[in-house]
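Record type: ASSEMBLY
Status: queued
Input:
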Amino acid sequence: MDPSWQPAQPGDRLAAIDTPALLVDLDAFDANLAALMQAVAAAAAPGQSIRVRPHAKSHKCVAIARQQLALGASGICVQKAAEAEVFIRAGIPDVLITNEVVAPRKLARLAAVAAEHPQARIGLCVDALGGVGALATACTAHRARIDVYVELDVGQDRCGVRTDAQVLALAQAVCRQAGLAFMGLHAYHGAAQHLRTLEERAAAIAQAAERARAARAALLAAGLPCPIVTGAGTGTFMLELSSGVYDEIQPGSYPLMDADYARNAAAADAPRFAQSLFVLAEVISVRDDGGRATLDAGLKSLATDSGPPLADLAGWQVRSLSDEHTVLDRVAGAHALQVGDRVRLIPGHCDPTVNLHDWIVACRGDHVAEVWPVNARGAVF
Amino acid sequence: MDPSWQPAQPGDRLAAIDTPALLVDLDAFDANLAALMQAVAAAAAPGQSIRVRPHAKSHKCVAIARQQLALGASGICVQKAAEAEVFIRAGIPDVLITNEVVAPRKLARLAAVAAEHPQARIGLCVDALGGVGALATACTAHRARIDVYVELDVGQDRCGVRTDAQVLALAQAVCRQAGLAFMGLHAYHGAAQHLRTLEERAAAIAQAAERARAARAALLAAGLPCPIVTGAGTGTFMLELSSGVYDEIQPGSYPLMDADYARNAAAADAPRFAQSLFVLAEVISVRDDGGRATLDAGLKSLATDSGPPLADLAGWQVRSLSDEHTVLDRVAGAHALQVGDRVRLIPGHCDPTVNLHDWIVACRGDHVAEVWPVNARGAVF
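Status: finished
Output:
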């Protein structure tokens, strides 16, 4: 698309933003960033230091990553090699790919990026011996060094190994390779993030932490190191913090949040992150005396894999979505909507929604403060 | 994202395509393009000429639009002003926005594009008098001329007017404006496209055609013109063709197709469009002796609003999707999958899936023939 179609400029009033646009409410966003770091500091035992490595697959935005680092994050996570490349080339100094990358073409490109940025750390997960060999080959060819974590399946049921014997075999293979630095275990329980009750999440993370504890013990008993156990997301990180097993947490959604996270029952001791992410849409058609309104944002502006968006407008609810439309119904005695009115929608799932947009319009009060490119939008490779 | 991360180059073998990549199988694609035009020609009554104006919101690709025009399409449809701008600037000579555009900022930009391209036709729908006035103001300011269609709600229940009186009032308002050319009625029944049985679709389109016929009669009775009744999609166009009411059809999905369209029972006289669109993904992790495989394409490469993708691989089915993963289970006596194997996925819904990708890799047999930019990817404005 024509890059000139940027929805706003810094200094614009909200009414001047072109729609549909991805908005971040900076007051809520700033509070979320601070609340996470405060919660981690408060939860740490005396002398304990837990690293925060926020997941950037949610925002894909260098400007947000820089703010997370400025507040004390030790690095970021990403999910794809192409995302890692975007952030490394933008100067983010420590990027962990919390995923397997196996294609020789991708590994060669990643090793080349690592070699070009010797001051940066790049990490990657492995769950099979073939992956270790392919990565080592790429690192040798490019004289690169990459941190390697063994992915332990602690309940996600997707990638990762499930036995201590597999962990040991992989760690030993990594330690034999000169270009690879074995860093420990990636033990993320993604499926636990959206369990609705605290009890369910606590049970899931207790089991995950026990699996990670046992795997680390097996490594140490075999004379191998295990410097880091990393994992945890926005829905469970307080549980990983208190487990005594995790050295690093990876929450991703907390700066932005979404309708699905809002359906989780919150723990009393966990910060209540505010919704800062919205899709701003405009009414393009009304009927029934303003009791039905059609907005100019649909499936191409809002991901619906975790349910439809919610209208951030009392007395209105989402009736249906199509490619470029969301239809709203008035359900209570709310004011009628008119053509040209603006409505903020709360995305069902922040990560794939952000990935639909090229720009994040960061607003403070009634004005646009900054417009951030979604640098890793489409970086699925 | 780094534009150098293009998944393939013309001449590459399929095995060299980076994943996940959006593929078009050119043999199926070419056959689909031809079959549509043949079906329209065969269905026309003697002396009747029905125009084909394919909807480009499905593919967002100038290279595909050019092929549609070369085969006899009279123009294309789009859904957003930003899409229209992309195609007009690329030289597509006739673009109808099958939607309301009401924001003065957008209308001014559209009128400016129209004024810069006086040899091109740009059309737009209206369903309220305010929209007519705003469009006329923009056209006057930019000395532009835009075709205007009144959108008639024939069952979609989203935008459009529902009474003949509203149609007449809008048509009269359009005809009073010097910069606007009243072209007739937009009467698209989107909700009918995915009704599963032919009987349901036939009943829906019979009702839609009757509504359009009555509205046109009301216009003619009032001394107003109604040159064009336009509408129809891939699921129903044979019905609109035989209705005797529609002058133009707007099928969008037929070149590509998707899993949801494949669930429609086909009419005996309708062409059977083949699946030409796939997301090529790679196995990055296996377990259970190769009976479970995790692919490197997820919600950021495949839209799931119309259901999950299907594996184009006998004996395998999709178990779950997450942001960057699809997990497959082996359900029959199929061969095991190994890390590095390639699997083609059939998207649930083609339109929002294409919008996730920057490139379409057009393949012929075992080779990449062309790599087309998805020019209007993200053009939601």
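Annotation: Residues 14-24+273-373 of chain A form a domain with the Lyase, Ornithine Decarboxylase; Chain A, domain 1 fold (CATH 2.40.37.20).
Annotation: Residues 330 and 336 of chain A are 8 Å apart (CA to CA).
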